[in-house]
Structure formats: structure tokens, C-alpha cells
Amino acid sequence: MTVRFEEQPIQSIEKKDLVAQVAQLKKDGYRLGQICATTLTENFEITYCFDKDYKMVSLRLMVPRSDAVVPSITGEYFAAFTYENELQDLFGMKVTDLKLDFGGKFYQLAKKTPFNETKAEAVANATTAAAQPAVPQAVNMKPANTGEAK
After folding, report:
1. Residue 142 domain-assigned?
2. Which of 9, 58, 106, 126 is close enough to 85 for a disulfide, judged by CB 3.0 to 4.6 Å?
3. Residue 103 in domain
4. CA-CA distance, 109 to 114, in Å (whole number)?
């Protein structure tokens, strides 16, 4: 049995070229596989993966964390709304022209935009929070009124 490996390119692109390149991939018969992101020190790295006949093509954007706005691709692939709402909720990015925008309510999160920090930032924030003195909570010591006669 012969196993053949093909190049699986990751093409770095500019934000302004994203929608046009995605439209071309759709025209060429590619389907959207996934959109994933990670938080780097200065940027978010967003990778859009497409496949056709077992061939993967990926487009990668580097988006400054200080100006995290990206265009939606839901005009080409409607199902991208799930990934793009995740970018908004988990990373705090703004996705423009999103066809189905949950307005930050796609997930119910204990922490707003939990992935909008690097590991080093998360550790520093946790250390700072742990160093803060605990605030005593008021405790109600009165028994609950159960409605039973005494």
C-alpha cells in the first residue's frame, strides 16, 4: 500500500482580502471545514479551513488585539455564523455583517470573553486575583419560613 501525502497550504492573507478569497474557494467547490482562533501577545490568529476532495486549504489572518474587527463570511457560507459568534463571545472580536448575530449571547459564560488573554496574562490575572483579600459574605442565619404551623 502506498500512502501519498499532499501539501496542505496555509496562506497568510490580509483582512481586506478575506471575503473575496472565501468567495473564490466556494466558487471552486470547497466547503468550509472550520474556523479557529488563538490569542497571541499582540494579535489574534484566525485560521479558516476549507476542503475539497480531501485537499485542505487554509487562510490565516493576523488581527491586532487592539482592533479586533473581522468581516463575516456568512454571505458565502451561512454556517460560519456558529464560528463567528464564538469569535465574538470567546475572544471579544467584532465580526461585521454577520448574518445571524447572537449579540454576545451565543454561550452563557461565567467570564466574559475567556479566550481574550494569553496564558501568561491569565496566570498574572489569576495571581493578582488570588492576592486580593477575600470579602466576607453575609450569611442569613434565620430559618426559612416553611409555612408549617408551630
Report:
1. no
2. 106
3. yes
4. 8
